[in-house]
From TrEMBL:
UniProt feature coiled coil, ranges: none
Domain C-CAP/cofactor C-like per the UniProt entry, residue ranges: 149-307
UniProt subcellular location: Cytoplasm
One GO biological process term: tubulin complex assembly
Name assigned to this protein: C-CAP/cofactor C-like domain-containing protein
Oligomeric form and interacting partners: Supercomplex made of cofactors A to E. Cofactors A and D function by capturing and stabilizing tubulin in a quasi-native conformation. Cofactor E binds to the cofactor D-tubulin complex; interaction with cofactor C then causes the release of tubulin polypeptides that are committed to the native state.
PROSITE patterns: C_CAP_COFACTOR_C (PS51329)
A GO cellular component entry from the record: cytoplasm
Region named Disordered: 25-59
Main localization category: cytoplasm
Biased composition (Low complexity): 36-54
A single GO molecular function term of this UniProt record: tubulin binding
Family indicated by similarity: Belongs to the TBCC family.
Length: 340
């Protein structure tokens, strides 16, 4: 039964990651299509509703945890442990659904509460079921952000945040300049994967972008109308505009971004952020059509999901103006096939 509990928790955590991203994408699209005048009022109302629901669920879990030591029947105990584990996962799902509109401090506080509940449950399980310790933690959770990126990527292959789709893209290239013009095309998703020392130039817009396993690259891109999901990148420069960007396992990278929602980072270190600075003929029209023509200021409002304190995360910083690259002008002379 202990093995079943452990397997269930691991499966739920992997599934939850996928569900969290899907929910965040849906929320971003929903937010994009709503009248601006309603967003502030609705966010305040939603935050209040979230706080009430989260507090009630948290108290319920705490009450059940307090009752566990009084249970003498082994079968009943294991059943209750599984139920509590499921309720904590539901709390995580609630936070994922609500992260789009929650203030940064409230989001960190909720994540900290969930972390505390997990630790309390783990402690009780180790005491009440001492033969086999049950744990929520996956291999990546114990990795320090300064671990070598390739080692980290290897450890996290079993539970990545990105499932690379079979979409058009650039893959498995080295020391090349890769260009693509999306104008006039029907490409909805674009993938950039397994590149080393390449420069990528993208003109026009797509609905979603997936960026995975890049080393020493520069990526200059027009607007993404949905989300950018990024994982396992090192020593790169990204100039990107999107309604949402989520970055996982990035090391020593500079981001020049324009984002409608707060950028999210996880298991990262040495990241620097600055405003979007890309130029090409027609970019103004592309940004306007994508709803990204106005600067939101969120480039400097980064959420580190692995940093739960109220103080500034040490894993990212604002790039000093004197070190910024300035305006970047690109052009694409041909319409590359982008199949990679």
């Amino acid at each position: 039964m202990e093995e079943e509990l452990q397997s269930k928790a691991t499966t739920m955590e992997a599934t939850l990651r996928k569900k969290q991203q899907a929910m965040l994408d849906r929320l971003a699209n929903r937010h994009q299509n709503r009248p601006k005048s309603t967003i502030t009022d609705d966010s305040t109302s939603s935050s209040t509703a979230f706080s009430s629901k989260f507090s009630d669920s948290k108290r319920s879990v705490e009450s059940q945890l307090a009752e566990l030591p009084t249970l003498s029947d082994s079968c009943h105990l294991k059943s209750r442990l599984a139920e509590i584990s499921s309720e904590i996962s539901s709390l995580e799902q609630l936070v994922a659904e609500s992260s789009y509109f929650l203030p940064s401090y409230d989001l960190r506080a909720a994540l900290k509460s969930i972390s505390d509940l997990k630790q309390s449950l783990e402690k009780l399980i180790s005491e009440l079921l001492p033969k086999k310790k049950f744990s929520f933690k996956n291999k990546s959770a114990s990795k320090n952000v300064h671990t070598e990126p390739r080692e980290t990527a290897k450890a996290e292959k079993s539970n990545p945040i990105i499932t690379i789709p079979e979409s058009p893209g650039f893959r498995n290239k080295q020391n090349e300049v890769l260009t693509k013009n999306f104008r006039g095309s029907e490409i909805g998703e674009f993938t950039i994967s397994d590149l080393d020392s390449c420069e990528v130039r993208l003109i026009g817009s797509v609905r979603a972008a997936f960026i995975n396993r890049l080393r020493n690259c520069k990526v200059y891109g027009g607007p993404v109308t949905g989300s950018i999901l990024m994982e396992d990148v090192e020593n790169c420069v990204f100039v990107l505009a999107s309604h949402q960007i989520r970055i996982h396992c990035a090391k020593r990278c500079d981001f020049y971004v324009r984002v409608r929602s707060r950028p999210i980072i996880e298991d990262c270190g040495g990241l620097r952020f600055a405003p979007y600075c890309l130029k090409y003929d027609g970019i103004g029209d592309d940004l306007k059509e994508a709803g990204l023509d106005e600067e939101s200021g969120n480039w400097s409002n980064v959420d580190d999901f692995k940093w739960l304190r109220a103080a500034q995360s040490p894993n990212w910083s604002v790039l000093d103006e004197g070190e910024r690259v300035g305006s970047i002008q690109i052009e694409v002379l041909d319409n590359g096939n982008g199949k990679g």
